[in-house]
Amino acid sequence: MSIWHLTTRTTEVTTYQMLFHQPATWACQIENVDRTSKKMGDFFHSSISKNTCIDFHNHVAPPIIIQGPIVHSVSKDRITALENKLIAVKDGKIVALEDSECMDEIRRMIGDNFIFFKLEPGMFLCPGFIDGHIHAPQFPNVGLGMDKSLLDWLSTYTIPLEKKYKDVNFSETVYNYVVDTTLKCGTTTACYFSTIFKNNSKLLAEIVRRKGQRALIGKVNMNQNSVLDYFEETDESLKETEEFVKDVFELNSSLVEPVITPRFAISCDKDLLKKLGSLAEKYDLYVQSHISENLEEIKLTMELFPDCANYADVYDKAGLLTNKTILAHGVHLLDDELLLLSRRGTAIVHCPNSNTYLKSGLCDVKRLLDNKIKVALGTDVSGGISLSIMDAMRTTLATSNHLSILGKQVKPLTYHEAFYLATLGGAEALNKEKTIGNFQVGKDFDALVVDMEVKVGSMSCSLATHNLLELVQKFIYLGDDRNIKMVFVQGKPVVNK
To answer: Whole-model pTM?
Structure first.
């Protein structure tokens, strides 16, 4: 086996290119992942996070073995912390998770051509984060309109911005930034809302594919109750949506999928909703939308659909509630709605940041889980003010504490449960728990290398000795994107720092 010690930027880039173009030719061992001259990510390339022309869709992931602490969830109640393990990845999938003494056995399994990393003290490996609800075009508005409630905020800020996305150059600039930044924040899977414009939505899919993120991408549907003529005729909406679905299929990506996306019940009439339900059934597609976010929204919805028993019934009558449906918010769901969603296998995406800033309410996640409803976390930019699921974890915990203080929860959520919602819980909400969510053998390797000794910000882990779970706690409560040293999606290193 050849051993490479990488010391110069030129060597690193050349080696990266050789590895990816001739993956069976080179073997490499790096004894330690340090924080200075021999960065883990620098081995692969020097500028993935700087809008390079690298197209990850066309690259083959080299076999990888990583040694060090590993954390993941195998249940919602407790993080599994493994102090010193070897995880082996081949063809983008986890092929072994063993004790550190099993290197020879793993090498026999994957062969001699692989890259080996040994994590330093203060580092650990965790699953990639899953963002179940994010509006990619809304990012330029982050931090604006937080003094307004939902419907006023939509008409004043959101719709005028989304109309601008007919401009391809503007779209490309924003979407490149959003995908780069979510990846840097550790989001390996994202459920994106785009706009009502087909070509703009296709552009987002192409950018996501090129940058190597896993994503569901939806062209938004609206045929009523909008401002500034930002809506479509029903036939046009359906035609362009079906064309968009076919466009995404033609990208031939195992990571990027189309999703049927009625904005919410208020913006779509009964006919459009039913036909979107039929389209989802025809192509076996995911569905994403909003539900019961705001009391004013619920009131208007029931006025528009008087023959429906409740908000969830609007979607159910249209054939839009399935086990591949993910609905954002669910703050004010009735008991009957919880029962219906549970029966249909429909998931809720908890968006605590936007629920708070738009004053929509405090969602009781424990109530959802107790009713056997799958729950993911969402940033909900730009109702939410951060692209980071880490921020969503923190706000989830704060919201749960507030409900407990108000006497609406007996016991608040723990950091173990918040971590589960950000990883395996999100995978279960998307029906992808057999593919992603933790490090079980056979799943795709979507992972983050976390460094808790980064010398930036106010956090320090060097003032005291911490065990692995304590490092995870500090990461959840205090960490940010600077602590995420490297991001893998399907075994490919899509971000390095």
So the answer is: 0.92
Helices (H), 219-373: 234-250, 270-283, 295-304, 311-317, 335-344, 352-357, 365-370
Number of domains in the chain: 2
417-444 residues labelled b (16+ CB within 10 A) or e (exposed): bbbbbbbbbbbbbbbbbebbbbbeeebb
Do 445 and 412 belong to one domain?
A: no
Answer yes or no: is pLDDT of 192 > 60. yes
* Largest interatomic CA distance in the chain: 71
Dump pLDDT digits (tens) for 267-302.
999 999 999 999 999 999 999 999 999 999 999 999
CB atoms within 10 A of CB 154: 23
411-443: per-residue pLDDT in tens? 999 999 999 999 999 999 999 999 999 999 999
- 133 and 123 co-located in one domain: no
Amino acid at 388: S
230: helix, strand or coil = coil
Domain match, 226 and 255 both: yes
Is the separation of the CB atoms in 448 and 126 below 8 Å? yes
Q: Using DSSP, how many helices (H) and how many strands (E) does the chain show?
A: 18, 18
215 neighbors 248 (Cβ within 8 angstroms)? no
Identify whether the C-beta of residue 484 lies closer than 8 Å to the C-beta of residue 457.
no
What CATH number has the domain bearing residue 172?
Answer: 3.20.20.140
Copy the structure tokens of residue 121.
């003290």
Alpha helix ranges (H) inside 154-219: 159-163, 168-184, 198-211
Determine, yes or no, domain membership for 467: yes
Task: State which residues form the domain around 402.
Answer: 129-429
Residue of 288, 211, 292 lying closest to 253 (CA atoms):
211
Give the 3-state DSSP-derived string for 357-422, with helices as H, strands as E and coil as C: HCCCCCCCHHHHHHCCCCEEECCCECCECCCCHHHHHHHHHHHHHHHHHCCCCCCCCCHHHHHHHH
